[in-house]
Structures are given as C-alpha cells and as structure tokens.
Design brief:
This protein is of the alpha/beta class. It is about 20% helix and about 35% strand. A three-stranded parallel β-sheet has the order 1-2-3, with helices on one face. The relative contact order is 0.32.
C-alpha cells in the first residue's frame, strides 16, 4: 500500500484548508496509508480524523 503525507500549518484552527485536509485524509485512508502533519499546533485538533489516519503535531 502506498503512503500519502498531508502537511498543514496549524490543524487546531477552524479554517477551510484544515477542513479540506481532514476530509481528504479520511477519504484517502481507504486506499493509502495516510499521515497528517501539523507544523504549528496551538491547541487540540478541531476535526475528526479516521482512526487509520496517523496524525502528528509539532509543539509551538
């Protein structure tokens, strides 16, 4: 199975880019190993990710 990595600046904010990133990750996890990396997290994740999606965040 191939791997896909999606990178977002801050997944803890409510924004259109973050919503699309979460939706895309959830849709792709049926066929790929999906990783979501948040470069600068200021709080908790505001979107629900499928349990098959690996989420990683760096501290600010």
């Amino acid at each position: 199975m191939k791997t896909i990595c999606l990178i977002d600046y801050d997944m803890s904010v409510f924004g259109r880019v973050e919503q699309v990133t979460a939706s895309l990750a959830n849709a792709l996890c049926d066929r790929y190993h999906v990783y979501v990396i948040s470069l600068c997290t200021t709080g908790t994740l505001n979107y629900t990710l499928d349990e098959r999606v690996t989420f990683s965040a760096t501290a600010k």
